[in-house]
Amino acid sequence: MTRCLVSAFVLCLAAGLGAQVTSDRLVNANGEPQNWLTYSGTYNSQRHTLLKQINPANVKTLEQKWVLQNQVFGAWESSPVVVDGVMYVTQRPNDVLALDAATGKVFWLYRYTNSGDQQVCCGANNRGVAILGDTLFMGTLDAHLVAIDAKNGKPLWITEVAPSKLAYSITMAPLVVKDKVIVGVGGGEYGIRGFIAAYDAKTGKEAWRFYAIPAPGEPGSETWEKDDDWAHGGASVWITGSYDPALNLTYWGIGNPGPDWNPAQRRGDNLYSDSVVALDADTGRLKWHFQFTPNDGYDYDAVQVPVLADMTWRGAPAKVMLWANRNGFFYVLDRVTGRFLSGTPFVKVNWASGLDDKGRPLQTPQPEGAPTWPGNQGGTNWYSPSFSPRTELFYVSAWVDYASIFRREEAVYEPGRRFNGGGQTAVTPTPDSPGIGIGRRGPINNWTDLVGHGAVLALDPRTGKEKWRFEQYDVTDSGILTTATDLLFTGGREGYFHALDARTGALLWKVSLGGSIVNGPVSYQVAGKQYVTVIAGNALFTYALRE
Amino acid sequence: MTDMRTAMCWAALVFALASGRLVAQAALQDHPGQYDRADIEAGSRLYAAQCAPCHGVNGDMITGVDLRRGQFKTVVSDEDLVRVLAMGRPAAGMPAFATFQPTEVTGLIAFIRAGFDATATAVKVGDPRRGQSLFEGKGACATCHRVNGRGPRIATDLSDIGTIRTPGSLQRSLLDPARSLLPANRMVDAVMKDGRRIRGRRLNEDTYTVQVMDEQERIVSLTKADLRSYDVRNETAMPSYATSLAPDEVSDVIAYLLGLKGPQP
Known about the structure:
The complex is a heterodimer. Chain A is mainly beta. Chain A has one domain (3-44, 51-465, 475-545): Methanol Dehydrogenase, Chain A (8 Propeller), CATH 2.140.10.10. Chain A has 2 helices and 37 strands. Chain A has helices at residues 2-15, 23-27, and strands at residues 48-49, 62-69, 81-83, 86-91, 95-100, 106-111, 130-132, 135-139, 144-149, 155-160, 175-177, 180-184, 195-200, 206-211, 242-244, 249-253, 275-280, 286-291, 307-313, 316-324, 329-334, 340-345, 352-355, 361-363, 386-388, 393-400, 404-408, 422-426, 453-459, 466-471, 480-483, 487-490, 496-501, 507-512, 522-526, 529-536, 539-545. Chain A has a 5-stranded mixed beta sheet with strand order 1-31-32-33-34, with no helix packed on it. Chain A has a 4-stranded antiparallel beta sheet with strand order 2-37-36-35, with no helix packed on it. In chain A, strand 31 and strand 32 (487-490) form a beta hairpin. The two termini of chain A are 35 Å apart. By secondary structure, chain B is α+β, with helices and mostly antiparallel strands. Chain B is built from 9 helices and 5 strands; from the N terminus they run H-H-H-H-H-H-H-H-E-E-E-E-E-H. In chain B, strand 3 and strand 4 (219-223) form a beta hairpin. In chain B, helix 2 packs across helix 4. The model of chain B is unreliable at 1-34 (pLDDT under 50). The chains are: A mainly beta, B alpha+beta.
């Protein structure tokens, strides 16, 4: 009888039947490092695992355990979630797969069929799911939010978040906080009015909505000087935010204003474009905001993952937010108040000569036809950074020596159509030389490092200075994972998956996976074995130590 | 003979053509020149705004599709392009662009068919037969460039150059090769740790390796960790034809090159 009960218990564990992911589990995700419960692992978005099995001494013995082949084209930007031995990963445009995280064997596949009128600027991307209880949540290209039974892959409810005919879309993984599912909308190149909205996880009913552009009369509306600019001013939200349970604040990076490249057409600071906003998680009420790039003319979305850290600042304990922005500056903010603490360029910057004591850039627009650093894709972009509480270093994938020439044009807003206000080209050494595209590349690098190259930068938040850098020949769109054993995992467009020493940047291990890595690695543990998963090209690879 | 020719080519170096454009393409540009320049320019702007975010500024960011080079998954005719724009490719995530006006569709196709070169129609294209004579004779182009299985490989093979280059970019390469040489095609000079020296034309490179067509026409992959020194040269020894050929002769060579479409069935 006893043996029977024990067997049943073991079976339960193996099958993950106790896998109700409560809100408390999400808050205390660091207490169960065997799981990867949210887009960035934990609410503080440090993308740092506490697992210690893989370390600098044995990382050379990593070996591939399984591969999941993807059947669709284009960049695979998804970041998996892993719960009690089951991995949930999306593939473009809007498929969800549930896999055995130890073997890669698929339990079920859910395929959402988009309406057909979806429009996205930059590929049919989806970056992952969120989970609460036994329910998964996915945003769709046609701007719906879908709740899916995590056990069998069947949809439970589908809610329209915004009209896809007006080019609203969702590409980010949602964030679950308490009983709500929070998403933002893409479409910043189509004249949307961006927003963040929370939905009841049980019913799909909207609980609150925060517009990333204030309506006339609301605080901040004075930053849109012309009458109707605000109504189609962009400010999309396409990367998952973070959450501080103690403050009950959820933090979100807001995208570029529209039209992208013609700031003269939308005079004013254009709040809350290119800002981070701190919202009350229960009501969506704005607690504070900080704008990185007022009246942006360079497409410098602030769509980076807000990284939350508790550290000593000027001799006192502080709750800070670390942010390497697309505009080329690395910021430290007080996440309780939004106060600017420091800001330092981490790549070459010439669109601003510096920041004032409140963090506002001293803008220095370049003459027509002259290069602007960083280029349109930014000093970094949406690629997940990492913070290690052990090294107290912030790690980011950067584009180095990369510039663009911007062209400004008057744009006319037409519902559902591109609203760019000009264009941009990467600065290349010869007239016919290819520039750098976004997302991924073919097997030949025909632009070379003369157009720009990638690097992992290890930045010291207290000084803003670079501690070390790991350079790559091609640029990198890869996220970064650090470990409690001072390892750093990252990839790049060339398809190499690297393990570095997080303290020195020394290369400890690498493998060529043959396709661009356009997402962040994750780590988890099943049956006592630590795994590291990364997606490269059209396949998802999982590694563990050699047995 | 081969050594001498190779040495001459090394001295004369590379025609400024793209690596990554070596794959033979079917000639899909049915009627070059049928679109006027205004269409192409309009298409260029529309492309930058509507298409480049997914397809890339060079049109090659979607696997299996290279718009600039006329490489598609299913499209053959211009009518096919019209259809794809109108219907999209929902399964691949491409939306329908049903709101485009017919003139916009025409412009986009013109731009794609012009190989993404808004100046494509501005360059004079001469007589291809005279051009071939110049290529093989006075211009001595064939000393370094291979065409249809004849000639050395140290410089880029031009057998299908007519499908991947436009008159404007060919003219730039002929008149100002030093400033037109694509970085991807630069010559590299590497010395291995054991002292062996490898020189050749770069085919591809990444953080840890470089791929080269060496002086003996071998394709070689080098691991940078094995190298004592590695130098990428930014000069080209290809002569400028700005003075050695008359303007009409340059136009003739361009015409010959544009007629090189790769093997035909």
